[in-house]
Amino acid sequence: MAARTIFLKLTRNARGRERSQFRSFTTTTEVVYEDSPNSSEEERGETPDDLKSRIFSLRLPKRSTTNVLQRWVGEGRLISISDLRHISKELRKSRRFKHALESIQQLVDSNKGSDGGEEMISEWLVYHNQDEALDSDYAIRIDLMTKVFGIDSAERYFEGLPTTVKTTETCTALLHSYASLRLTEKAEDLYERMKEANLSLNTVTYNEMMTLYMSVGQLEKVPLIVEEMKLQKVAPDLFTYNLWVSSCAAALNIDKVRRILDEISRGSDSGEQWIRYMNLVNIYITSGNLVNSGLNSVVESEKGITQREWISYDFLIILYGALGNKEKLDQIWKSLRMTNLKMTSRNYVCILSSYLMLGHMKEAGEIIDQWKLSAATAFDRSSCNRLLKAYKEVGLEESAVDFRLLLIQKGCDEIEESQ
Predict the structure, then answer these.
(1) Which of 35, 83, 266, 403 has minimal Cβ neighbours within 10 Å of its Cβ?
(2) Are 416 and 407 in contact (CB under 8 A)?
């Protein structure tokens, strides 16, 4: 203790008075110096030493976040539940699923006794008036266990949960895992069990089933899920309508697509996102991209993705365009281009429509360049002219003008006048 006092005194004499405030990971440790006028920025700078930084410094998945947490507590610091939730969220965003799982499982296990004498996180946590983990914590753990250890481990964990924890949220998390892996029978069995348990199914639950049926090509089952939603008075969201429209589009049922758009327009909460979505779908239909898509033509590729599945991807692009989520648009388009699949004019028109609707002219120009350089699909001026006409027909004259100017800038001739 005396040595520490002497050290601090010497430090103060050499560099001014030091005040350190140690906080949880949500704000980095702040070290404030009252320095002389000659002290440099480098001398004052300190490497952040917070819980989040320590965990993110674990570069290798085999290293354990538990050791970091134990060391943190060993230094006399506390951890809050919100700390662990936020750390796990950030790790998931960085796709560091193993470390995210370790963080969230410490939270979930905090209400249980230790199985093997290991010091449990419950002794370290500041609960902030929360006595136990939330359903969402268990749901996140199920999703992460699927990603890290596989579906079998996630199933065993779910089945071992007490009945009180087998809620809509945790069941839907397992349903999501089944849908992602296209395990139709298991998903349908769990879906029936949820209904038998009288759980209040929400929009996300129904969307998971619709997503599954779209992915396995059982398009006829998608409208049945929508009808069941309506029967249970569960309001569809934008994702619901996108899946429903996609299923009808894949079956080339254009009249049904129109009726769905009419239903959306009659909704009381049809805000800007809904209007943008309806405009994009209308543009897509008016430009002839559905009518000209043959269901029997199969894209030549190792994966054998059909035109029906391509249409589903197109509408996923339209959905995120309507949501204004450029990051997702970028990701989907990049993923599709990396599959080495044969692009069609329809695919280029779809992504172009979304970027134009959001006003991202630079990205729209890049799509035109990619299209013109494509070895698989020649640049289609007639499709661009149809797209120009479609924009005008839905009342988006300004977007039509911008698109035409962009085409001229990119050296595309034979482009019709936009007005």
Answers:
(1) 266
(2) no
